[in-house]
């Protein structure tokens, strides 16, 4: 029963980092918070922004920009904290991710999702689950479980650009034919 | 069906406890094989286990314990001696019982094999006892069973006649006891006659078939002692009225008139009257003055309800609560403490005297509530020590070593989460002591020690910590060899000069203990890094001290509790931190210039040299420090170290929350706590901070 249900839910939350759109399956997103005071934990990597109070519990917060290798900017009114539930080693862990803006919740057919194109062994494509095409724009669906469980900084910008380039090339090829 | 499952679950929990009690009692019995009290306890536990097991469908357990019980019945009656072989097999049976409990009646083929193996072993013992012990037990058995033989063989002279008044509790059937069996049992002890009193049985419409309305008067002539008769009622004595008294020093059943009198009673259902007996020709003079107690009897029964009341109080003096409920309580208390901090903050900014007094009362109440909820979640460390006794016993046998294992302070209480995490590390440490610490008897004698090695396990409170000390008088460590090994492994540079405690700390370094090291350094250090890691996970500390040839002491220092601590709130820059209050020794206010100009991070305060660290510097906080900073002096091992912070704000009840997996590599923060304004403050682990930062400076010095 739960199987068929999870298949029915094919909604994706889209958000912006810099100029690039990303998406996360809604099952990972618990809630969206406004930007608030973050308690800094000293001696941690720069993308580990600190901790906040989430309903009486301590929630670690990660700056997604820094995590993805995008130069950090000032926080604006649109900056949000996505509270995510991810799985690390069979354990459900809650973590906050700071993103530039939350855009939309999209219904998107699971079958229409394009597989993430191979990017050569240099990049771990495990971070990108697939690609959605909405109004001629490509949106990367991120695998939140892998993205927020590694301790490294992911050069996502590079990955994204390459992915989009590749997809566009394939498309133009098709047009030529 | 669900109710049955529920009961089953309860039985499993209870049986688990019974089995571990049994194990503990057996281990005591091993040391004091003649203490009746412990034999009785073992027997009682087995009996309960048998009864309950049968009731809840654990037939295998029931059957199995029945056989064990038979053996201990022999022991109880003094027909069998407790010896090592018997205890060995009983302890193994206890292990087997655990397996049976886990698997219910559906045994796998392997388990089935061990089960039948054990059963036959135990039956063997019983059979051997019954056959081999012929010469003296059979004789006794004649005395038991064959009444008439006893009567005419002149034994009658040794017999006494007893009067038993047995008024079972109405609810006696509820725990599966059949009073008639007890009377039958009395019958096997000699000549007896019972008078049943039925006058309490109500009319059919109010009759409740689950209740026992009958009571009995029993007369028995036997050469057994009164205590033997007492034993018959051992399982019902708690809730039934039982009075046993000797009425004559001879066998009254030999007297025709007495017999007739009893027969009369049996027919009429009248109560026994000792006065009438006294008038009987031929035996009147033999009747003991005990008879005069009879008038007291109503008094005694009048007292009994009081006894019952006391018992009832004793029953509710402790209750079983599932650990889930306790966890929930702790969570709620934590939330309340957090909420109370918010109330305090609000009160401070609103100058309302009434609000202030309410806030103060709430604070007082929540503090009491907190302390109380805590004490509930504390359990004595003794609860995990039984299995260690067992471990020492079994391992020392395997290793051919003689070891006294002495436990002190098993009543010391610790948070249950800590206790749960303590058992593995303790096991490691004990194994080390057994395996490598204590020498074989021959070696010990050669070194001028007693043949028997000693391992002491001592638990005690020290401030807000609990210390657990495992001490042996074995071979001990050789610091020189440890240092050599560490240098060989590149863990320490060749030039480094380490004192003794620093050398022993090396044992805890991961990678130090390898198979190679086991043979080189008196074999110690197996898994000590694991011990250290496990203990640090519960915010504890392990300290090792040893003297070559004399023995080793491993001390585990643990916090009393994990979730709520008294803390002191301090500010560094704009961020708030909490320092655990138990670590704080003194606070000084010092000008920033003094700190800035201090040489080598040492400052003189009240004539003492005090090493210090500026947390502002160490944490890389932006901005300028205030003109006057404060130094919090904290105790670190046996030294005092100062931590420089901006300002001390005050005491704060801290509900410790984990920072989560993402910060697991963050060693010197033990967690976060929610402040009154809803922001998060970090709780500092002062020990980790100092050891980490002082190591850093050491490395810096070395690299210079």
Overview of this protein structure:
Chain A is an alpha+beta fold. Chain A has a single domain, classed as CheA-289, Domain 4 (OB fold (Dihydrolipoamide Acetyltransferase, E2P), Beta Barrel). Chain A contains 4 helices and 11 strands, in the order H-E-E-E-E-E-H-E-E-E-E-E-E-H-H. Chain A has helices spanning 2-8, 64-67, 144-147, 156-176; strands spanning 11-17, 20-25, 29-34, 48-54, 57-63, 80-88, 91-99, 101-107, 114-115, 128-134, 137-142. In chain A, strands 8-1-2-11-10-9 form a 6-stranded mixed sheet. Chain A has a 5-stranded mixed sheet with strand order 3-6-7-5-4. Chain B is α+β, with helices and mostly antiparallel strands. Chain B has 5 domains: 2-132, Four Helix Bundle (Hemerythrin (Met), subunit A) (Up-down Bundle); 146-315, Alpha-Beta Plaits; 323-379; 381-559, Histidine kinase-like ATPase, C-terminal domain (Heat Shock Protein 90, 2-Layer Sandwich); 564-703, CheA-289, Domain 4 (OB fold (Dihydrolipoamide Acetyltransferase, E2P)), CATH 2.40.50. In chain B, the strands form 5 sheets. Chain B has a 5-stranded mixed sheet. In chain B, helix 4 (84-103) runs antiparallel to helix 5 (109-132), helix 13 (323-349) packs antiparallel against helix 14 and helix 16 (416-437) runs antiparallel to helix 21. Chain B starts with a helix and ends with a helix. The A-B interface holds A 37, 39-44, 48, 50-53, 56-60, 62, 88, 91, 93-95 and B 334-335, 338, 575-576, 618-621, 657-663, 666, 668-669, 671-672, 674, 678-682.
Structural class of chain B: alpha+beta
Determine the structural class of chain A based on helices, strands and strand pairing: alpha+beta
Helix content of chain A: 10-25%
Percent of residues in beta strands of chain A: 35-45%
CATH class category of the largest domain in chain B: Alpha Beta
Oligomer: heterodimer
CATH-defined fold name of chain A: OB fold (Dihydrolipoamide Acetyltransferase, E2P)
Helix/strand order of chain A = HEEEEEHEEEEEEHH
Largest beta-sheet details of chain A: 6 strands, mixed
